[in-house]
Design a protein that fits this description.
By secondary structure, this protein is an all-alpha fold. 69% of the residues lie in helices and 0% in strands. It has a single domain, classed as Lysozyme, CATH 1.10.530.
Length: 153
């Protein structure tokens, strides 16, 4: 029995170490600065889903950076909130992504709907929102559960 518990304990430690590499905690200090009312672990989950923490990730549609912002969306956020963040920098991308997600949460009043709109845009056709948005939301919320399990203090 004692040997089984030791093996179980060691397996648990290796699993947590593996998960912390798969679910990194990068950019947390920057996220804290810009998350406002957002849970920083939710922002990490969005980044993990959007770009897998690749700073210069670029989608086929033209979205850029950690939080995969479209240039037009970044420009709109800067105008709306009277800021001047550069979406091509790590800090600016996180700042704008947090502002946008916060805006969507306040506007939509529901995390799942806000995440769908973050992914597809608020004016995407309903079939795109229901298909792509549902898959995206499921990924983000799965990572969010893992982040809360690993890093909740």
């Amino acid at each position: 029995m004692r040997g089984f518990l030791l093996v179980l304990f060691i397996s648990l430690i290796f699993s947590i170490l593996f998960l912390t590499r798969f679910i990194p905690h990068k950019y947390y200090d920057i996220i804290i600065q810009y998350s406002d009312n957002l849970d920083p672990l939710l922002v990490l989950s969005v980044i993990r889903t959007e770009s897998s923490f690749r700073e210069n990730a670029k989608s086929n549609a033209g979205a850029f950076g950690l939080m995969q912002l479209m240039p037009e969306t970044a420009e709109w956020i800067n105008k709306k909130f009277k800021t001047n963040y550069d979406y091509t920098t790590v800090e600016g991308n996180i700042a704008l992504g947090c502002k946008y997600l916060n805006y969507l949460l306040k506007k939509d009043g529901d995390l799942k709907i806000a995440l769908v709109h973050y992914n597809t845009g608020p004016y995407a056709p309903e079939d795109v929102k229901s298909d792509a948005g549902e898959r995206y939301t499921k990924k983000v919320l799965t990572f969010y559960k893992l982040y809360r399990f690993l890093y909740r203090r």
